[in-house]
Amino acid sequence: MKIWIDSDSCPVRIREIVIKAAVRENIEAVFVANRPIPLKEAENIEFILVEQGDDSADDYIVSSSIPGDMVITRDILMAGRLVEKKILVINDRGGIFTKENIGERISIRNFMKDLRDIGVYKREDVFDNRDIFAFAATFDRELRKLLINIPPVPDANG
């Protein structure tokens, strides 16, 4: 099991929560971005710098992740690709993308983009403590579920 983080737009507090949990649970966390991201160094924390491009990090994560992994992203289109692969996807505000809600989320995203493009709507992207707490609660709950499904690693005695 790995935790993949679409790091290009991931808030610092979310990165810190993921790193702390990855270290505590000894799970690999892979941060992927097309620019350098400052991260706390730890044995199971990896940073992958991909080439410049709008979807470079997305493509890398989608092609590298497998069922049983968790992906953290706010990119709804990327989430749709991952949900098709049966991968758990949560956003940085604690929302879970599922096969039941991804179609609606993509439609709303496209509608809001159209409104922004014609100047009718301006996005106010406020990220506050409520979002951090919501993320932490969802992340912890979903991580626990994934950890329960991991088969134990045999010890030296077999």
Describe the structure.
The chain has one domain: 3-Layer(aba) Sandwich (Rossmann fold), CATH 3.40.50. The protein has helices spanning 12-25, 56-64, 76-84, 102-117, 129-148; strands at residues 2-6, 28-33, 45-49, 70-72, 88-90, 96-97. α3 (76-84) links the parallel β4 (70-72) and β5 (88-90). The chain is of the alpha/beta class and 158 residues long. Residues 154-158 have low confidence and may be disordered. Helices cover 43% and strands 15% of the residues. It starts with a strand and ends in a 10-residue tail after the last helix.
User: What gap, in angstroms, lies between the N and C termini?
Assistant: 21 Å
Outline: globular
Q: Helical stretch count?
A: 5
Main sheet properties: 6 strands, mixed
**CATH domain fold name:** Rossmann fold
What is the mean pLDDT?
Answer: 88
Number of domains: 1
Q: What attributes does this structure have?
A:
disordered C terminus; 6-stranded mixed beta sheet; alpha/beta; globular; 5 helices; Rossmann fold; single chain; 158 residues
Brief account:
This protein is of the alpha/beta class.
Question: What is the fold's blueprint, element by element?
Answer:
Elements: E1 2-6, H1 12-25, E2 28-33, E3 45-49, H2 56-64, E4 70-72, H3 76-84, E5 88-90, E6 96-97, H4 102-117, H5 129-148
Parallel strand pairs: 1-2, 1-4, 2-3, 4-5
Antiparallel strand pairs: 5-6
